[in-house]
Design brief:
By secondary structure, the chain is of the alpha+beta class. The chain has two domains: about 1-215, Class II aldolase/adducin N-terminal domain (L-fuculose-1-phosphate Aldolase), CATH 3.40.225; about 225-340, no CATH class. Helices cover about 50% and strands about 15% of the residues. It has helices at about 1-15, 60-70, 80-90, 105-110, 125-130, 135-140, 160-175, 195-215, 240-245, 250-255, 260-275, 290-315, 325-330, 335-340; strands at about 30, 40, 55-60, 115-120, 150, 180-185, 190-195, 225-230, 235, 280, 285. The longest helix has 23 residues, at about 290-315. It is globular, with a radius of gyration of 19 Å. Bound molecules: zinc ion. Zinc ion (ZN) binds near residues 119 and 121.
Length: about 350
Amino acid sequence: MKLSIHSLIDISTYAGCRVDYTQGGGGNTSVKTPDGKILLIKASGYKLKDVCPTNAFVCVDQQKILSFYQNVNQNDGENNEKLSSQMVKDSTLTIEGLPNLRPSVEVGFHAILSKYVIHTHSVYANVLACSNEGELLAQKIFEDKDYGVVFLPYINPGFELTLAMKSVIENYQAKNGKLPEVIFMKNHGLVVTSDTLDRVKDVHTDVNLTIEKYFNLTGLLTEINLKQTPNGYLSKTKIISDFIKENGLSLELLNKYPLYPDQLVYLNNLLYATPELMKIDGRKVEYNTDLKQATTLEETLAAYAFVIKAVKDNGLTLSTMSQQEVAFINGWEAEKYRRSVK
Ligand SMILES: [Zn+2]
């Protein structure tokens, strides 16, 4: 167990310390214990870099989750979403010395994958995942790699996403005799899964570096910059000021091009609920809030600006979420919880 906690901290720090990999409380990681009985996963609403021996992760009954997805009646429709969230609650283990938290909203697909899982909202992966040409390009870019790559269409997170991922990896395995290690999720992000700790990090790094080099994106987003003001913090990140120069910035614009769920959770919906959080004055953006929230807003906005710029600069066409997909996220109980953890 101790070893598994250390492995989880290792991959969480790896994925959580780079703004081009994860923004705000986005992304999640998991590790299965050697006997396959327990899944340790980042807690919902926490940042990856918060994961430490005594906080920000949850232990769940791996076998319970796995058998739910192996035996579920897919025709039960909407009821399955409720059944699966109840099942996740029932699978959450109470461990002495650890706070009672909720597992990541994406715990279902972690359970059906290999021992180590890194899920990020990497800006490089999202250039492919948020463009109509991304799937075909991915086939070309990763043709010679020794890891299998699959591309998942946009699916509402939770129950449906887990089932869709299960079927895509089973199909891949039937054709190729091995499991894919890389899964691109349309309008969402990247999942990398492997049987060893080093391999999962190496493959995640290689996937991102390969896209970064292919599109010549190096150095576009390495850190965010905020300057303290009497009211809060001023946005000073270059990719954001470049974006505003070219496109302007407003809540209408953000709503017009919804790229992925985390943009809604950590940007659009926060601003919708509390418009005074962000003051736009010409090309100046100021966050009237504390450093933690200003950082989340700035990181999410920087990633958004990055993806739109890279898609545009490379002659690709932007793929956005549909209004129904946006409505699902906005009405999802699990997301309301995730937003509420501060
Ligand atoms: Zn995600």
